[in-house]
Amino acid sequence: MAAAPQAPGRGSVRKTRPLTVKTSLNNPYVICWSTLEREDMHFILQTLEDRFKSIGLRKIEDKKRKRLPFVKKQNKGKTSLDVGVSEDVNEKKPESDQQASGWTPLHVRKQLAIGVNEVTRALERSELRLVLVCKSVKPAIITSHLIQLSLSRSIPACQVPRLSERIAPVLGLKCVLALGFRKATTDFADEVSAIIPRVPSLNVPWLQDRSEDSEESVDMESTEGQATEVLETSFEDLSNHKRKLVENRQGSAVTLQPLKIKKLIPNPNKRRKPPKSKKTTSK
After folding, report:
1. pLDDT range class, residue 233, cuts 50, 70, 90
2. Is residue 61 within 8 Å of residue 182, measured between CB atoms?
């Protein structure tokens, strides 16, 4: 007799799935803050700390009222005198808190930009004269965008170690990650003018230094002034001169580098998420 056909085996080998690889394009340039000398760091911190203490700029926050624990009334009959005294004390407390809350000299606070968000907005509008950033920021990407912003606006900026440790307690804040001084400042004009020469220049490959930009702007202004004064010069000569300036600017530019291509394998160890535990409803 013929043998009965056997059922196909269930232990067949599974086909291995190809690894999913994701490509990412990264910046080939390394952008970082210029190092500040130790003497300049102590000078900047000491001048700012002394100035803030002399002005008396400080933020006083309202302390949240602590809820008193519920106490059962032992004496039912309470005298009206005690009730009136307690109401007067409760009415006087909020008035004193309202006077002490907020920034003490408000006009001085308007001359500063405190915090990363406020400094970023002021830099985009070109309202600042000097930018100082704390070095203890983690992660560093929180303040790295300020390098390109400040250099594109020709505003001196540097990273100061221990800025938050020294300045935050004086201002009554928990931390100060970024500090900017506005152009219309009057109370900090002398301090800013003394700090700016000690600030190191920033280096971004695709942006020119602010000294070069100022020199080129002076050259362009001089050419325009000569054009208005001398009437004999023709329009073609001026256009040729401006083209030469543009060509020189393009020749001095840094050669661009290709983007770095990285291949990323998501979850290479193939770790699975733990299953969500179903909560048993107790009846």
Report:
1. very low
2. no
